[in-house]
Amino acid sequence: MNTATNLLFIKFISEFYDTSPGVLKVILLFGWIFTILSVGFIVFLLFRRIYISWKRKKATQLRNEIEKLVNSIMQGRIKSFAFEGETNRLIKSYTNHRFLKNEHRNILINELISIYKTLSGKAAMNLREIYLLHDLPEYSLKKLNSWRWYIKAKGIQELADMDYADANEDIKRYSNHSKDLLRTEAQTALVKLANFDALRFLDDTTYPISEWQQLKFLHILSNKEVSNLPDFSKWLKSSNDTVVIFSLKLIRHFQSMKDSKNVEIALTHRSLKVRIQAVETIGTLHDENAISLIKTQYYRDAKEFKIQVLKCLMGIFKPKDFSFLELQLLSEDYDISLAAAKAIVSVGDKGREFIGEIFTTYADNAARDIIKHALAETN
Amino acid sequence: MEIIEFLSEFFKNGLLIYTAALIFAYIGLAIFSIYETRTYLQRNSFVDYSIISESPLAPTISVIAPAYNEGATIIQNVHSLLSLHYKKCEVIIVNDGSTDDSLQLLRKAFELEKIDFKINPQLKTQPHKAIYKSTNPKYAKLIVVDKENGGKSDALNLGINIASHKLIACVDVDCILEKDSLVRMVKPFLEETESRVIAVGGVLRIANSCEVKDGEIVKVNLPESFVPRIQTVEYLRAFLLGRMAWSRLNGLLLISGAFGLFDKDTVIACGGYDITTVGEDMELVVKMRIYMHQQKEKYKMVYIPEPLCWTEIPESLKILGIQRNRWTRGTAETLTRHKQLFLNPKYKLLGLLSYPYWLVFEWAAPIIEFVGFLNFLILAFLGYVYWKFFWGLLFLVYSFSIVYSLYAIVVEELTYHQYKNKWDLGKILVAIFIEPIFFHPYLVLAAIRGNFDLIVGKKSWGEMKRKGFHATRT
């Protein structure tokens, strides 16, 4: 459009607007706001694409160099990580980069962490040395001062991933933070850095421990060498149900036989979830002494508890329990009936023999089908 | 003449109020969606998901996939489901009375043999013919059920009866799931401590023109054909803005039937999938919400913004029309069945916001648009159109439609940035500008047709021809 047409267009728009009633003026105004926003979005998208493509190129370059460096470590070409030579040049070039220093440093730290996780022994120590010698823990610690919780959490995670135990005290400050994710990240980091000692917060925490958090704790603890198990009994008495549940899971995982009696007490806990976990733990601990107690509780409890009993005690039931199990097999509830049939079958040859006997005595097709199903699944 | 003038004014003002309310609602959704997506990204930016897939504490999942005449792709699809990164899961394929060779192919490929299996008849379904398991331990997770044809809902219900795990993932067998999709979907169930999570939905992305290898998306491409490309914009708007916002408000009324993870006990308690509606996915979600309200239990339904499920969408306008016709009927059926929810404070947000929104802005929108257009034609013929107002309103609606779509693209670019090709942005922009002029009116007509079909009692799904992933670029 030439200037004259432009002017004509502006004149038309302006006249259209001036001669419009109030409501229409508002409509037009909003229309223009949306149009300007649209233009803004398009410009933003175009510039962002250019920026992202430049950033990605730089990141790929950095990743490739780190990869080369790690390969050198693995192949033993680089033995020392003092501030000299190729390593120093590479790291410095990125930690001191004039533009996007933080961005590059983050890529560097992320790469180091992801490789560190896959290494062990000398190679892992060497890589950790790079992290320490180039003051990268300082950058991770700096993140703890950010006003954004997720940056703090990221910093905590970096320190823990690189096994930087010196940061314990800094991290501890957040272990009772009101922001759930920051709190859990700090607790997870402490468990990673300080083992079971870090779980002391369970003594008095009022916050629920989510299943996700429990899963993370257990994952970390599973990969550690545990010499002394903590005293689970105080956690089993906690008024926080999630603490009790987690303790039961820990007892199960670490096969802490000495806690069998305390676990039995949890069978009568007010929370169904706790009772179910207790049954599962008894099953894993093979605590045969608890069977009579469980049977008493069985008749009083919910269906979920019953199913759990039949499933989890499969390895413990003995021929003397057949009459109890047969009674359950004849239950009208499909789940209970099937679980009972499977429990009988699980008692080895005697179980199969017993189920074969009762199969022929049943006229009830449903029970016979259940038995066939249980036998088919355990074949 | 006075009556015509009155009607003209009435329609003019009514349309203006409706447009203003719609824009206001969409802006609200846009704000909530960005908040929810940002929170999600922050919360999950440093999560090691591999912990879940390997953990003995992870919940167990039954993946249920109904299949009807999927012989051409069934083997590849089942392999894809079996390779999901989740240790504690089983995969249940329900052959819904296929008339092709699906079952024979499955039996041969996965070394299946009939087993004795007593099904728990919790949900009423068509009878099953046989249940198969593999003799090869490699496929120990797989269960194949052969049943009489009863439709997708019926097949899903039978799958639920067979499922032995606490969580059920209902998927369309022809969708392509990301390998870590289950791990990501299960996380909200693990994180929540205050209320019970009963369902999680994942964002659907468009698989047309994407490169697929061994049941996995290896390269994401923007659809080459125009019809799916415009739908791509539509899907981004619906999932990244709409669903995420409703997830933030805990007011979701729909979790796509293509991929959703549900709490099995709740699904069974509210009767499973309804076989009498064509909108079984929405019907199930609404029933689950009503059930939880009746139980007076705190609950949550969550959507996660990650692209976890890739689906093939209609390439032709004809098939698209059939699909949207069905969606309209499904929505209308569910809204009619649960009309007691409308502005009912007993159901809190569900009754006061979610239901009215769906009624007024999802179901009624095409009807209002259509009636408005007819009214415009009549008034134009009679010479009663206030043209300045007409152009002003058109300008407002068009500019808002553009800015809203662009906003969805901005969110996509800032989050998962799937369309990286340098020409993709240009192609998307063209689609955004054209969509309101050519594509949207067609969808309005399809929705009107859907409402008409509902009134005359049409119940069928309609034929949904798919091009298939084999035909896409490799």
The radius of gyration of chain A is 32 Å
Number of DSSP helices of chain B? 13
If classified by CATH, what would the architecture of the largest domain in chain B be?
Alpha-Beta Complex
Number of strands of chain A: 0
Q: Would you tell me the structural class of the helices and strands of chain A?
A: mainly alpha
* Largest sheet geometry of chain A: none
Largest interface: A-B, 53 and 47 residues
Q: Kindly name the structural category of chain B.
A: alpha/beta
Q: How much helicity do the residues of chain A have?
A: over 70%
- CATH names the topology of the largest domain in chain B as Spore Coat Polysaccharide Biosynthesis Protein SpsA, Chain A
**Unreliable residue runs of chain B:** 470-474
Distance between the termini of chain A: 82 Å
Give the low-confidence spans of chain A.
none
The helix-strand sequence of chain B is HHEHEHEEEHEEHEEEHEHHEHHHH
Provide the domain count of chain B: 2
| CA radius of gyration of chain B | 23 Å
What is the CATH class of the largest domain in chain B?
Answer: Alpha Beta
N/C terminus separation of chain B: 65 Å
Can you identify the CATH superfamily of the largest domain in chain B? Spore Coat Polysaccharide Biosynthesis Protein SpsA, Chain A
Q: Strand portion of chain B, in percent?
A: 15-25%
